[in-house]
Amino acid sequence: MKFLKLLILFIVVSFNLNAQNNSTLESNRQNNVTYVIKNVNVIPMTKENKVIENATVVIKENKIHSINKSIPENSVIIDGINKWLIPGLIDMHVHTLADGSPFVIYPTKGPLVSYNTQYNMTPYIANGVTTVFDLAARTEHFGQRNEIIRGDVIGPRMALAKVIGGKKSNPIAKTPSDGRNAVRFAKEEGYEFIKVYTWLNEETFKAVIDEAEKQNMKVVGHIPVAFEGKPTKDIFIPHFGLIAHAEELSKQTDDYSYKKAQEFAHLAKENGTWLIPNLTNMVAIISQAKSIKNVENLPNLKYVHPLMQNKWITSNGYFGRKKLIPYFQKQADFHKLIVKAFKEVGVPMVSGTDAGISGVIWGFSLHDELKLLVEAGLTNEEALTSATRLGAEWLEVDDKIGTIETGKFADLILLEGNPLGDINNTRKISGVFVNGKWIDRSKIDLMLSDVEKWNNANKEKYDWKELLNSLKN
């Protein structure tokens, strides 16, 4: 009997492994295609960043095989004449939709809302966003990442940060001991980064960051309200590596002068703390505070899941707050001064958009952010650097992505125009390489069309307020 059970187990495992191997083989067949981009202008985004004109780039087995070397036989040729090749973009602050159940109503119950992972990822890929840093990751995001790695879904590389906060977050940490345990649990669960959140008290905030350093986990996040009214220098704790918004700094002061921005910049420089300016989120907040029509009329709202469309329009926390618009605008103006000061002092800044908050649409928002960074004083090249090489450096994957160099993963964007001349040219996408898989403009348009059609067909099935009421019953 024991032998029979072992035999059955062996057959089942073998069957599952064969199924997985077949799936992997199919994915590998697609990646075995060798692509050659001929006569393309390469913007490598290395520190020297010398443009390679009329180059020949070979993509083989999901990596950049060679630049200006021989062309392998049986290659698929892509015409790069008058086109520009840049690394795939990195959005360092996103909130990606994933299945979830806010409350467990009974054991074995599945998620209250399920999402099509491909539809969630399509807006990223359509915009050349080939890596994202999710700053409110849950276990469901590991599942999404696995789908992408298996090749079941075409999506970006995903870095995941666990939120630790004093309230309104999971896990909640109210004491230093709670905070340290939360970091250890996050490490065991497989999270790579820690996000400190708004409601941590000062002692717990410091303990979380200290424990993260011990666990070799980098820290990104908010500046807790507990620091309001305290000396500015107290904000900058060793190993607090990345501030999630310029807004975190503007909340710490009523002095919106350039001198104050410079003070923040010098302290960040001394502490080794980088910044995500995140200019997009405040622009979106101001727009929504003015009129909900500004959400309804977003040209790319059609690519947002109908539940989120409904939430952004019917339960928008910013709509109706017109009295706060002057305050929001002062903050937005100060954030531009912060960008200018951080650039002057030499503090690295990386592009992030808060994609997923109301009015900020995944993928599309990164191009908005690049434009805003240029308007705030960065050169086109500096803005591109913030969304390529520097993001890869902070995530410590710069040996794999972030620049166009032989041996790195083929995460690339083929553009119709030169973004060094006009940052808006990042939107003019001819095609995208995602881990060596070529997606041309026609395929991108088809993928976006699939998302739009599904969203339109299912609009009437989703009501945010109704969903909330169902949780109360």
Question: What labels would you give this structure?
Answer:
TIM Barrel, 473 residues, globular, seven-stranded parallel sheet, 41% helix, 16 helices, eight-stranded mixed sheet, alpha/beta, disordered N terminus, 15 strands
CATH fold group: TIM Barrel
Q: How far is the N terminus from the C terminus? A: 49 Å
Query: What proportion of the residues form beta strands (DSSP E)?
Result: 15-25%
Structure summary, number of beta strands: 15
Number of helices: 16
How many strands, which pairing sense, and closed or not: the largest β-sheet?
8 strands, mixed
Task: Find the structural class using helix and strand composition.
Answer: alpha/beta
CATH class division:
Alpha Beta
Mean pLDDT: 92
Radius of gyration: 23 Å
Overall shape: it is globular
Helix percentage range:
40-55%
- Unreliable residue runs: 1-29
List the helices and strands and how they pair.
Elements: H1 2-31, E1 35-42, E2 52-60, E3 63-67, E4 76-79, E5 84-87, E6 89-94, H2 117-126, E7 129-134, H3 139-150, E8 157-164, H4 176-189, E9 193-196, H5 202-214, E10 218-221, E11 240-243, H6 247-250, H7 258-271, E12 274-275, H8 279-290, H9 293-296, H10 306-314, H11 325-345, H12 364-375, H13 380-386, H14 389-395, E13 412-415, E14 429-434, E15 437-440, H15 441-457, H16 464-472
Helix pairs in contact: 2-15, 4-5, 7-11, 8-11, 12-13
Explain this structure to me?
With 473 residues, this protein is of the alpha/beta class. The protein has 16 helices and 15 strands. Helix 4 packs parallel to helix 5 (202-214), helix 8 packs antiparallel against helix 11 (325-345) and helix 12 (364-375) packs across helix 13.
